[in-house]
């Protein structure tokens, strides 16, 4: 039986997929039928095991995405190994915390480069193939801080607002050419990224009390949405940043 969520025959590239949300997305895309390449700094041993268990092809590409230097090669390797590229999930991201009054230029640059600049130029490299074939899906991982201000995370908030903006402009340019560009704004998800937050009992309780769903998100909550946005079911969705946040923004 075919469903509008079927990704059989699709070729996907996911950044930062050795842990957390990226790993869950890579595994879910494979579960829906896609072959998967992942790009990142660390060896994605667990992701490899999980993806290969689905029977789909898995390719690991070593790349430090803190600069744009590797983007052309990452896309070229994906295309060479998988035979093309139909789906790009820009997930790799970092956060730096400090009061804005003393926030360092190094932390500003590190976050903007990894979370925004590389995302744009990797998308540009992948889109050349997608536009040529008249088909493609780009899914950017944004944040609640694409909508809200946050505290002590100025470069992260600026970068994630930027991710939402880039998602809109690329959707404007490519929607008529068969390429969908959308973003997901995860709420509070249980990953390495939020470990310190969860370990702080007071902050953790305050966060939980404010989430209408009454629980933290699981990486699988984001992965299902990524499969949806990468699938034919989302063919008419362009330029949105979709909150997946247990109702946080509805509050
Ligand atoms: P993780 O820390 O588990 O995942 C981040 C991933 O990005 C890791 O695989 C990491 O690889 C990779 N990465 C970071 N820097 C680089 C780099 N220079 N080159 C290559 N890969 C890199 O956290 P999450 O799963 O939570 O984060 C995934 C995305 O979700 C991020 O964009 C984050 O901003 C976003 N997000 C997460 C939320 C949450 O509550 N968890 C909420 C909102 C957004 P490595 O192990 O090598 O560092």
Automatic annotation (TrEMBL):
InterPro entries: 2-deoxy-D-gluc_3_DH, NAD(P)-bd_dom_sf, Sc_DH/Rdtase_CS, SDR, SDR_fam. It catalyses: 2-dehydro-3-deoxy-D-gluconate + NAD(+) = 3-deoxy-D-glycero-2,5-hexodiulosonate + NADH + H(+). Signal peptide: none annotated. GO terms for molecular function: 2-dehydro-3-deoxy-D-gluconate 5-dehydrogenase activity; 2-deoxy-D-gluconate 3-dehydrogenase activity; NAD binding. Coiled coil: none annotated. It comes from the Bacteria. It is an enzyme of class 1 (oxidoreductase). GO terms for biological process: monocarboxylic acid metabolic process. This is 2-dehydro-3-deoxy-D-gluconate 5-dehydrogenase.
């Amino acid at each position: 039986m075919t469903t509008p969520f079927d990704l059989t025959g699709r070729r996907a590239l996911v950044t930062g997929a050795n842990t957390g949300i990226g790993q869950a997305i890579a595994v879910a895309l494979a579960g829906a039928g896609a072959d998967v390449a992942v790009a990142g700094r660390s060896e994605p041993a667990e992701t490899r095991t999980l993806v290969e268990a689905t029977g789909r092809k898995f390719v690991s590409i070593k790349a430090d995405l803190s600069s744009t230097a590797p983007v052309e090669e990452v896309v070229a390797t994906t295309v060479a190994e998988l035979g093309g590229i139909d789906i790009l999930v820009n997930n790799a991201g970092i956060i730096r915390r400090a009061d804005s009054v003393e926030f360092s230029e190094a932390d500003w640059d590190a976050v903007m480069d990894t979370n925004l600049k590389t995302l744009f130029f990797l998308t540009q490299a992948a889109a050349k193939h997608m536009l040529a074939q008249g088909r493609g899906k780009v899914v950017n991982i944004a944040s609640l801080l694409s909508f809200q201000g946050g505290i002590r995370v100025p470069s992260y908030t600026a970068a994630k607002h930027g991710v939402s903006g880039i998602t809109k402009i690329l959707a404007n340019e490519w929607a008529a050419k068969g390429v969908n560009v959308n973003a997901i704004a995860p709420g509070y998800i249980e990953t390495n990224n939020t470990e310190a937050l969860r370990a702080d009992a007071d902050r953790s309780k305050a966060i939980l009390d404010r989430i209408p769903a009454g629980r933290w998100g699981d990486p699988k909550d984001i992965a299902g949405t990524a499969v949806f946005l990468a699938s034919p079911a989302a063919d008419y969705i362009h330029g949105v940043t979709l909150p997946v946040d247990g109702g946080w923004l509805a509050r």
